[in-house]
Amino acid sequence: MAIVIKTRAEIEKMRESGKLLRQVHDVLAPLVVPGATTMDLENAANAKIATWPGVKAAFKGYHGFPAALCTSVNSQVVHGIPNEKVVLKDGDLVSIDCGLILDGYYSDAAVSYAVGKASAQTQKLLDVTKASLEEAIKFAVVGGRLFDIGAAVQTMCEAEGFGVVRDFVGHGIGRSMHEDPQVPNFGTKGKGPRLKEGMVLAIEPMINAGKPDVKTLKDGWTAVTVDGSYSAHFEHTVAITKDGPYVLTR
User: Fold this and answer.
1) Strand order from edge to edge, sheet including 244-247
2) pLDDT tens for each residue of 131-143
3) CA distances (Å), 55 to each of 24, 157, 200, in order?
4) What is the 3-state secondary structure (H, E, C) of 39-92?
5) What is the model's pTM?
6) Dihedrals φ, ψ of 110, to 5°?
7) Mind listing the pLDDT tens digit for each residue in 153-170?
8) What is the mean pLDDT of residues 214-229?
9) Which DSSP category does 194 fall into?
10) pLDDT-based confidence at residue 1 (cuts at 50, 70, 90)
């Protein structure tokens, strides 16, 4: 693996990108209501991004992806494409993933929401997935092991009977969207490369209410659960510093 170590100045540039990305998510949160379309979310994100000269949507055009957002509904795990025909309904779950580029540096973050009133199972899935991200971030420390991060996610989520997706993982991030190392949401604690000051990781649990198996639809992008169960996705961009984890997208 060719892991790129960032300077403090580079991390601060990524932090500036991350702060803008959080503003995008803050704009979208109140729009997640029954009757909204996933294209409504896409349009709102693009409108916000357009207010910042020089800021670009990281996903749009990335390997041909057509949108600024990934909007994944219910059994869609990741890479759902916004569509004016996809109308959110009461009880749905939608995961919104977005990335920005500012001065050549990337940020990446995802949030999952219940639409209207969630079922008890959906709310539990959301709560546990979000909590597993926060727990994983605690292990993004100098001298730790890479798989400590995934072990934290796996331990928490599997204890609640949820499936941890294997096919998609987190990643290093910096001047490219995807850098080494891959950051799985599973693994054996104490294994993997040592974590070093200046590494920046996109940590992103993708957790299914049912089994972990996924498949990709004919559009070549949208990944869905094989068993049709709902899936949740939370993500932060996190720098490893001598002072502990530094969440750049909070």
Assistant:
1) 179-183, 170-172, 200-203, 236-241, 244-247
2) 999 999 999 999 9
3) 12, 35, 20
4) HHHHHHHHHHHCCCCCCEECCCCHHHCCCCEEEEECCEEECCCCCCCCECCCCC
5) 0.97
6) -135, 145
7) 999 999 999 999 999 999
8) 98
9) B
10) low
What's phi and psi for 195, nearest 5 deg?
-85, 135
Six-digit token pair at 104? 């050549």
**Residue found under tokens 């055009």:** 61
Distance (Å, rounded) from C-alpha 91 to C-alpha 104?
39
Query: To 10 degrees, what angle do helices 146-159 and 120-137 make?
Result: 160
**Among candidate residues 161, 61, 70, 58, the one with its CA nearest the CA of residue 108:** 58
Contact predicate 170/136, CB 8 Å: no
Residue type present at position 10: E
Instruction: Give the separation between CA 145 and CA 191, rounded to whole angstroms.
Output: 6
Instruction: Report the alpha-carbon distance of residue 159 to residue 128 in Å, rounded.
Output: 10
* Residue 47 Cα to chain centre, angstroms: 21
Helix orientation angle between 8-28 and 38-49, rounded to the nearest 10 degrees: 130
pLDDT band of 28, cuts 50, 70, 90: very high
